Amino acid sequence: MMADPVTLALVALLLPAAAFLVIGVLPPLRRAGRIAAWFSIACMTGAFASALLTWRAFGAVGEPIHAAWSWLPSAAGPFATVGVLVDAQSTSMLLLVTLVALLVQIYSTCYLSDEPQPALGRYYALQSLFAFSMLGVVLAPNLLQLFMCWELVGVCSCLLVGFWYTKPAAARAALKAFWTTKAGDVGLLIGIVLLHGITGTFDLLQLRQMAESNQIVATGIPFGLSLITFCLYLGAAGKSAQFPLHVWLPDAMEGPTPVSALIHAATMVTAGVYLLTRTEWLFALTPDVLAIVAWNGALTALLAAVLACVQTDIKRVLAYSTVSQLGYMMAAIGAGFASAGFFHLLTHGIFKALLFLGAGAVIHAVGSNDVADMGRLARKMPQTAIVFLVGTLSLAGVPVFAGFVSKEEVLGAVLAGGFTGPFVMLLIGAFLTAFYMFRVVFLAFFGGRRLEVGGRRIPDPRSTALHPPSSVRGHDTAHHGHGVGGAEHAHDAPFLMTGPLWVLALIAMAIGIYFTLHVTHGEFESPIWLTPVAVVAALSGILLAWLTYERRIVSADALAALFGPIRRAAIAKFWLDDIYLGLYRHVLLTFSRAIGWIDRYLVDGVLNVISAWTLDGGDRLRRMQTGKVQDYVWAVGLGLLALMAWIGVSW
Amino acid sequence: MGLQAYLMLSAVVFCLGLFGTITRRNTVGILLGIELMLNAVNINLVAFSRFRGVDVGMVFTLFAICITVAEIALGLAIVILLFRTRRTATADHIDWLKG
User: Do B94 and A622 touch (CB under 8 A)?
Assistant: First the structure.
């Protein structure tokens, strides 16, 4: 039996919403966190099943299916509609989102098992809401619905990053995430409104038809269509953590690790890339903005890769790596080949979720985020080590693994688009990616020659040399009863945590093997030397990490000295946070004070003076009222005289 | 004597009444002033009635005199009550109308 793809997509969309409502509305269920958790997981399983069916049903149809219902009526047809748009992109994303969300929810039951029950209920309500809003973004047939769900996703991200809201760092990070993405979202909204202004529709398919028949004419807008696409890109840059709006993503690691895996690796941060993929035909009309997208994407990829090299917090390394990989996707889209970026999005979603969940398992076992507290974990946590290695190899772009195929696509796309500069940057980024990921792997899982004296480990020279001053230690530990034993007593997590890891690892392997065997040559021709160069870049990064952190032939200190200024800049996060803080303190606060002064003393002052005058005048006029009848008679008499005089004059 | 003389008399009486009403300190005096003004009006009515030959004016005058009597009775009652409660009949001391 094959149901209608639209119905199936709606089921996938609405099941998490139902889970959220039920958990949210029924306080007893919410307080019984574990039951709420399994209820939410059951709904998510249903959503995943119907996503699978949607995918299959769509495969049978093969053409985009558009279903919309009138929402805001207006004289000339509905002003806004809600509905679903089932096409190749949305079905793939649907699968990715429901799969990762399901695995993360299962994983969380174990990861957050020490949380109080009401907190767990809140967590699962938010997880369900997040899944619903993300699926809303994915399936949105028009920009208005996309924007609403886009904002919902942002809210969920803020609430989940601030899940441990009693921790000041988490609360700050949640706000930072919210405001930074908000800055971009304002651009997105302006872009959508401007686009509606010149086309009169929010609908993606209609817009696409208009764009392809060159009917979109931007009159009366400075810079024309470029302004609109740039505004859309702003929104995407905020969500997808593009330079210089990427600062929120590393801080968002204050949230629970499964949240990082779902929201800040696999789904929400890719919403920006997805938006650009959805509107590539619009961006194709504005090559100048596309060039900005490509260059900024490559810049983001390179800078974030450099930043990742000096982090000692395992989650922060992964966060910067996510920023970097998002830069790759953006670069491919900027080069004009959105499909390559989208492909990288899908594979990255799988293996980055895998890496985050693996890191979560390590943090859970060790009780610290710092790689300096880990080491030789491969022997104690063999399963975690294997799946983490699969993820790392994927991310590094080693052949046969998932990331290899898609990263090469991205590199080929950027080259085919004629962007040599970004291509070189991305190639250096690929080398750095392999380096920093294997640095983590060797430090955390192997570290063969780590010296131990009297039970106390001598600190790793590299990690002390590169320890960023702001490193947050004991991240999740405050909330984890176990894991206090540190690396010595670490062990593999229970099946509820390793199960999702294995699923993701197998999918990452399967994708890699499938696409290595079935080489699909799409829209562009890559030069023959591309594959060897990319592989050499990845392998040399791995080799350098191996020599430095495993064999210790290359001195980490020497490396640090070699890249002194860059290293210092990277430890300072390129001073971006300082710049933002300075802007906030010196520019925004000064401006606010000036505005506050004007409000307090000019606006309020004028009003106060007027009211004082009124009071004073009233006070003076009041004296006229003596309360004595005779005075009033005087007034009446005088009034009579005046009236008579007036009548006499006007006669 | 013509109509003019009656009208002049009426105006003079009215002004006397108004002056008394405004200036007298005693509330009974004020009532007397009011009475004078009313009677000035009555003179007007009677004079016009007589010189124009319309008797309705006379009837109205009688009517007005009746009402005046009632009004004065009421006014005096108020004054007496005032005097009882406030121990004064001086207009300057009665200023409760003050806002």
Answer: no
